[in-house]
Amino acid sequence: MLGETEEGAYLLMEWIEPGNGDQRELGTALAKLHQVTAPQFGFRKDNYLGILPQINTYEENWWTFFFKNRLESQITLAEKSNRWGGRRQEKYLLFKKHVLQITDQQKNVPSLLHGDLWSGNVFFDQQGRPVFIDPAVSYGNREQDIAMSQLFGGFRPEFLTAYQDSFPLEDGWSERLPVYQLYYLLAHLNMFGESYGSQVDQLLEKN
What we know:
Elements: E1 2-5, E2 8-11, E3 18-19, H1 23-34, E4 47-49, E5 52-54, H2 62-80, H3 86-102, E6 111-113, E7 122-125, E8 130-132, E9 138-140, H4 143-151, H5 157-166, H6 173-192, H7 197-206
Antiparallel strand pairs: 1-2, 3-7, 4-5, 6-9, 7-8
Helix pairs in contact: 1-5, 2-6, 4-6, 6-7
């Protein structure tokens, strides 16, 4: 809760005592979150992915939204810090063309996303219930959350099994994960520097 007194503004948050839980419950909870949908992709306001601005301007087409508001907004930031040159741009344009070809027939539904689903942003309370924290929320393709969960580890196989049991992903989802992982690697490039550049390059070349 945000508030303000004569001494200044304050942020009041609930304290949740960490406990232990079952990652199957986590997978089921994420599936329930993703079943909340909206008419368009985006969100009612822009927000943040970590310290970086995240653009959420509504779009009816998922890939228009994803390339413009996710990948290309990060590329613009990388250009400003001299971390994006002509060679990477050439690779990116080929990457984009390939992705649009292989995803042309995919059905995309605007699902409520956590948006920054790495293992440090989830835990369990004392009753074993999953708790999601520090979201970069928007309505998008749910494969984006799955992609982030698989990028840096920390989620056991039963997490994904339980998710699939509750809300099965579309055929070919595993082949599309690198597309979404590029967003997070670009963000890490912008936040932490060229140490993530080789991963960005490898992913661009892979597709």
